[in-house]
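User: structure tokens for this one?
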Amino acid sequence: MIKKILISVVFLLLLVGGGLFFYLDSIVKSGIEVVGSSVLGTAVTVDSVSLSPLSGRGAISGLRVENPEGFESQYAFELDSILVSIDVNSVFTDAAEIESITIMQPIITYETKITSDNIRTLLDNLVEEGAVASDPEDADDAGQQMIIREFRMVGSQLNFVSALVSAPITLADIEIRDIGAESGTASAANAVRVVLQELVASILSADLPNLDVLRESVEGQMQDGVQQLEEAAGDLGGRLRNILN
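Assistant:
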């Protein structure tokens, strides 16, 4: 009898544990997509989330941020591997504490135009009213607040795209500590703002294509165009000669 009771208790614990795993993963996945799309003004999607409800550690896979309207590339960010560690007890409170976020080898497309670029356009899309809340009691007005103890972006692949040239760029690793801690907490919009501002600074300090590279690219495109015209003219001349003969 006692053995049967023990087996039943273990079975129930497994069911509860499995349910916690499923619902926590689902909640985090949905939260990222809904909140991310709302604050950035463009579609944010996630393939999967695997997060332990006991340790708060896990991974987010296949996070994609679409480019804002007016840009040609499909995605601004393709983040296939994100390692996270969350204080589980804070998940259902107004101020979630994220111990660490590490983005591994993200693909970032930096598409620039004459007057703007896609990253700064995403920055402009961020809503101001949810930027900072120094008092957790204001969380209902500003959305869920958070503190991010450590944020790291390592091994980034930056694709520089402009009307004249496209080139891969080496981007330094980014590390930010205690996002939101100074003001008490930060909204999702403000946390994203801090990260994007740091990313913009890193991009602008990177070894971007200079005028000589741009000039060579334009000359190369012009030469390719001339060669294509000459080849087309040669083909047309050949066809005309065949017809006349």
